[in-house]
Amino acid sequence: MKVGITCYPTYGGSGIVATELGLELARRGHEIHFITYSQPIRLTGPEPNIHYHEVEVTRYPLFEYPPYDLALATRMAEVSQLYELDLLHVHYAIPHSVSAMLAKQMLAATPPRRNLPFVTTLHGTDITLVGLDRSYLPITRFSIQQSDGVTAVSQYLRNRTLNVFDIKNNIEVIPNFVNCDEYLRKPEWLANRIEYAADNERLLVHLSNFRPVKRVLDVIEIFDRVRKKMPAKLLLIGDGPDRSQAEWLAVQKGIHEHVFFLGKQDNIREKLAMCDILLMPSELESFGLAALEGMACEVVPIATRSGGVPEVIDHGVTGYMADVGDVETMSRYAIELLSDESALRAMGKRARAVCRERFCTTKIIPLYENFYRKVLAKAQSAPPVLQDSVR
């Protein structure tokens, strides 16, 4: 298949999942075309069957805000026609599904008329935050309804979308995934731990885009409590608006020498593989990709019991969960686990086993391939005409 993928090419989970999906599909022989305003961060070099098409937005004095969604729609249509794409797959509803809808209508109205289906994958804040804004809710609902196929990364997100937006679409749950052959606890990566922690120190990690919803200040609070009980270091991977507050809180707590702000990293798996516990005290996670990547590396997640997280973590078996803001309980879980090496390692191995059983690419990528085939089969039986709602 020839698939066009559009996502936010940044450090957020939706962009990472979209990029990894494209890479995995390309390895399985599909032709993948990324259509974005910049190259996705996890496209680190030339890859077979991978193509990148930049969306350029022309700036005119007339426009206070350049119309990216329109430029994206035009580029989608151009790439689809030039390379004879079979379908578009957009990640994050706003504005990508709207642009895909416009591209589809453009191709249907322009000779040679063709029907280009598009799939929308919902990731979380496109529904739980952006989509609920009254100024965006109607167009978010409409673009989802006009999609030829809709997927959500968790049962929680599927149910919330159906309930809040009151739509009738059949939304299929296809969870996030991890390449278990790449994310693992390699001895040579584990040996690099000495760069950050001494032999007698525990190593904790947090991975996010440092937005308020990730509650990175809670990470500092939890680590401060752990430090009072045992020698430990903390790796903070990522960047974002709350980084400066986290840095300042670490200074106030007197633990800044034990906290490493690593910024954005390319080889996430190498950093995760050397750690003991991953902290994810988010306000809301529709899935929790960081927890899954940690679990694949035998790093035990301690997270909040919110959104789709309980679909990933089995409390007390593959990790621990607590209420949002309950740093005392999360600290207690971390201290107890870090004080018992055998329990820590056993839980880490159980976490990886669950990844291999349920969330590896070998399990999830075929689900997307089958979903594409269903969408294409339905589209082939439909004439390439403009939607009734916009005639």
Structural features, described:
The protein is α/β, with parallel strands linked by helices. It folds into two domains: 2-177 and 361-390, Glycogen Phosphorylase B (Rossmann fold); 187-359, Glycogen Phosphorylase B (Rossmann fold). It is 42% helix and 16% strand. The strands form two sheets. A seven-stranded parallel sheet has the order 3-2-1-4-5-6-7, sandwiched between helices. A six-stranded parallel sheet has the order 10-9-8-11-12-13, with helices on both faces. The longest helix has 20 residues, at 361-380. The radius of gyration is 22 Å and the shape is elongated.
SSE inventory with pairings:
Layout: E1 2-6, H1 13-27, E2 31-36, E3 50-54, H2 68-82, E4 87-91, H3 96-109, E5 118-122, H4 125-130, H5 137-146, E6 149-152, H6 155-165, E7 171-173, H7 187-191, E8 202-207, H8 216-227, E9 232-237, H9 243-253, E10 259-263, H10 268-272, E11 277-280, H11 289-296, E12 300-304, E13 320-322, H12 327-338, H13 341-359, H14 361-380
Parallel strand pairs: 1-2, 1-4, 2-3, 4-5, 5-6, 6-7, 8-9, 8-11, 9-10, 11-12, 12-13
Helix pairs in contact: 2-3, 8-9, 8-12, 13-14
Measure the end-to-end span. 30 Å
Give, in spatial order, the strands making up the sheet with the most strands.
Answer: 3-2-1-4-5-6-7
Radius of gyration: 22 Å
In terms of DSSP E residues, the strand content is: 15-25%
Based on the coordinates given, report the CATH architecture of the largest domain: 3-Layer(aba) Sandwich
Helix percentage: 40-55%
- Considering the protein shown, what is the CATH homologous superfamily of the largest domain? Glycogen Phosphorylase B
| Global mean pLDDT | 91
Biggest pleated sheet = 7 strands, parallel
Q: What's the CATH topology name of the largest domain?
A: Rossmann fold
| Top-tier CATH class of the largest domain | Alpha Beta
Report the order of strands and helices: EHEEHEHEHHEHEHEHEHEHEHEEHHH
The domain tally reads 2
Total E-strand runs: 13
Gross morphology is: elongated
